[in-house]
């Protein structure tokens, strides 16, 4: 008997049912949105609530003239979604976009323009800016082109790391600026690949989490101009103006000209994970690159202006972002867009978490007013795919909504703690009346996060926006003349102090004081409850010449100068040892606020406050010295005692030490006044030196001391 013959046939939907513009097509799958490969072709799906007609425009990669324009038949539309499958495409050599026509009697707020070719908001890759800084062809009718990306990367079983939040030390950095300077010595400066070569440096510092400034596709030539005073090209260097929310920045990829930016970025994540370093992305959902009424039409405006933006009744753009428009995040369609985007990055790129720029905007409704229960924030908090992702809010916006400590958090969100930054800066420069505030910030800001724990507080003293740490101790005022805006831009209130001389100096006393102040800042930051965040380059005293708003400088002003690693090795060693000290003492990383009670049976409260006299803190307006003793279980399970004194007074003090239990002695970990200590003034944990005088310690002018108890 002959065995039956099994004929393998293609699925019935892999055949065209129509011929349009020379291509076989058929009704497409309406979900997911975007362009996806299907058997024999590419499925395109795009949403517009009010479009009367939508055409798919196809190009050979890089060519000006379309190779085809395919009107999507009306019968291929379901609701507001137009979907078509096109067969026979050379999808590796394909750019695509859409032409959208609106109704004859358009709404006052509609911005349909059939003369424009629109990018796909869901495009997984984009072209048009493949090489950073290369002048684009301004005559190209389609500047930002949508492309397909292919899921063929070998992850080698990589997964998000899920490091407990209490163990994180975050390092905020700019992908291009980190290796662009010739001193970096990498093979592909300014790229994802270049950053991979510097992972050993990151690991050597002890940071276990990088927060990358925007890597979603943006246009560095947005608002580009020549500074008439210097002739320098000023560009959109920071990238806080997104063009493609699903697409990694091609100009940051050494392989960008070959369309391999997706794989190159994935490799960066994979290599960072292999080194034990998590990856957070700084994401910008508060506005887009389309700007105000005078801005370009890229995608959202021409697809569905009323849906994607918060508009006035007259059809103008609300500007709570300070950049011309405000994304309508709590509209159901836009909410789903943001969710889809973050799910994509978390699942396809293994991203560990996100920091949300001007996140207070995500709390605003369609009329711009804050919502009691913002749907987007709730959805992000409870999304099953994002469950393990770190979520960090910059809890304010340019419209005056300030929510530090009050951001709708659903038990999930952390916040950039701007009050921590301001308090520590004021204390370090010797402002009166700051001791009480400093004590509150050191223990995780329980006034702000009493019910949320210390991990809600992302503690930072500097970030990309403002002075570097070196400039914070070197300048009283901003010096932004190089931005070409007559020094009008940037914050005027910097909480800085120049230590007696404005800017660069060769005065040895001033330089010593500046170094000591930077060490004081790091020591406070890395011993405070909460999650510390370091701004890239601060560990080697990088300067921007007093510029506190270097958003437009792709130049040595903004780049990491790698010669500083050796030149300022004393500060770098100090920071390394402070990070190691934090890792060695779990009581500094507790997710719970200390209570002032003996909760672990040591005979001492878990936190106590001290002044020049032990157990007697001076909370007066003129006080500038604070001691704090923290106790709790150590890494080995035994009781741990860490005593810290921060002195912002211009005079030194002999500070009485609290007595230890019998059998323990105080050992010195750090003294920012003592320039003879190894490790830049902070000794490698485990090698702390016993102090001769167990009754008191000298704390020099504007300096800090940290002691730890060890067996006698």
From TrEMBL:
SMART domains according to UniProt: Aamy
InterPro entries the record matches: GH, GH13_cat_dom, Glyco_hydro_13_N, Glyco_hydro_b, Glycogen_debranch_GlgX, Ig-like_fold, Ig_E-set
Annotated coiled-coil segments of the chain: none
A matching Pfam family: CBM_48
Keywords noted in UniProt: Glycosidase, Hydrolase, Transit peptide
GO molecular function: amylo-alpha-1,6-glucosidase activity
GO biological process terms held by the UniProt record: glycogen catabolic process
Assigned protein family: Belongs to the glycosyl hydrolase 13 family.
The name this protein goes by in its record: Glycogen operon protein
Organism classification: Bacteria, Bacillati, Actinomycetota, Actinomycetes, Micromonosporales
């Amino acid at each position: 008997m002959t065995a039956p013959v099994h004929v393998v046939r293609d699925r019935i939907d892999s055949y065209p049912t129509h011929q349009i513009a020379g291509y076989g097509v058929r009704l497409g799958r309406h979900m997911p949105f975007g362009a996806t490969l299907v058997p024999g072709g590419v499925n395109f799906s795009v949403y517009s609530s009010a479009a009367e007609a939508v055409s798919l425009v196809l190009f050979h990669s890089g060519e000006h003239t379309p190779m085809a324009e395919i009107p999507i038949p009306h019968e291929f539309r379901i609701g507001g979604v137009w979907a078509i499958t096109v067969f026979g495409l050379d999808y590796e050599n394909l750019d695509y976009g859409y032409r959208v026509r609106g109704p004859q009697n358009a709404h006052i707020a509609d911005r349909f323009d059939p003369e424009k070719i629109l990018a796909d908001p869901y495009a997984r890759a984009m072209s048009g800016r493949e090489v950073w800084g290369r002048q684009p062809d301004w005559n190209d009718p389609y500047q930002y082109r949508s492309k397909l990306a292919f899921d063929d990367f070998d992850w080698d079983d990589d997964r998000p790391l899920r490091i407990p939040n209490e163990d994180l030390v975050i390092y905020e950095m700019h992908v291009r600026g980190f290796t662009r300077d010739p001193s970096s010595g990498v093979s592909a400066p300014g790229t994802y690949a270049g950053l991979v070569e510097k992972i050993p440096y990151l690991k050597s510092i002890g940071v276990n989490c990088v927060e990358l400034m925007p890597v979603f596709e943006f246009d560095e030539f947005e608002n580009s101009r020549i500074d008439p005073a210097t002739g320098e090209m000023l560009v959109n260097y920071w990238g806080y103006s997104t063009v493609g929310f699903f697409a990694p920045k091609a100009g940051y990829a050494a392989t960008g000209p070959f369309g391999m930016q997706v794989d190159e970025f994935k490799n960066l994540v994979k290599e960072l994970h292999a080194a034990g370093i998590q990856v957070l992305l700084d994401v910008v959902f508060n506005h887009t690159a389309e700007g105000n009424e005078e801005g370009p039409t890229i995608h959202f405006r021409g697809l569905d202006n009323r849906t994607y933006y918060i508009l006035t009744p007259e059809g103008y753009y609300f500007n709570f972002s300070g950049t011309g428009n405000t994304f309508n995040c709590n509209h159901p369609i836009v909410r789903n867009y943001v969710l889809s985007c973050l799910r994509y990055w978390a699942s396809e790129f293994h991203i560990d978490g996100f920091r949300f720029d001007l996140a207070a905007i995500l709390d605003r409704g369609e009329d711009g007013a804050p919502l009691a229960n913002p749907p987007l924030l709730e959805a992000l908090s409870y999304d099953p795919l994002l469950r393990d992702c770190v979520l960090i809010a910059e809890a304010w916006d340019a419209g005056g909504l300030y929510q530090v400590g009050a951001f709708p958090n659903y038990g999930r969100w952390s916040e950039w703690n701007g009050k921590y930054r301001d308090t520590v800066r004021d204390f370090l420069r010797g402002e009166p009346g700051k001791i009480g505030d400093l004590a509150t910030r050191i223990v995780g800001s329980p006034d702000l996060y009493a019910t949320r724990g210390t991990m809600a507080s992302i503690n930072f003293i500097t970030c990309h926006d403002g002075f570097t740490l070196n400039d914070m101790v070197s300048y009283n005022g901003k010096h932004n003349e190089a931005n070409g805006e007559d020094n009008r831009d940037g914050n005027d209130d910097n909480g800085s102090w120049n230590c007696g001389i404005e800017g660069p100096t060769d005065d040895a006393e001033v330089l010593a004081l500046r170094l000591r102040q930077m060490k004081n800042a790091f020591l406070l930051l890395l011993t405070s409850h909460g999650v510390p965040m370091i701004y890239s380059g601060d560990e080697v005293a990088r300067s921007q010449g007093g510029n506190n708003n270097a958003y437009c400088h792709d130049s040595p002003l903004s780049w990491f100068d790698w010669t500083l690693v050796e030149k300022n090795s004393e500060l770098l060693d100090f920071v390394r040892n402070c990070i190691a000290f934090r890792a060695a003492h779990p009581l500094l990383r507790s997710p719970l606020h200390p209570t002032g009670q003996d909760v672990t049976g040591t005979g001492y409260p878990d936190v106590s406050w001290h002044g020049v006299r032990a157990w007697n803190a001076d909370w007066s307006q003129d006080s500038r010295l604070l001691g704090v003793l923290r106790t709790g279980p150590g890494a080995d399970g035994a009781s741990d005692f860490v005593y810290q004194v921060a002195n912002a007074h211009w005079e030194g003090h002999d500070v009485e030490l609290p007595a230890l239990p019998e059998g323990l002695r105080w050992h010195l970990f750090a003294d920012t006044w003592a320039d003879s200590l190894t490790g830049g003034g902070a000794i490698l944990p485990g090698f702390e030196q016993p102090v001769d005088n167990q009754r008191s310690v000298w704390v020099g002018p504007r300096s800090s001391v940290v002691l730890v108890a060890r067996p006698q």
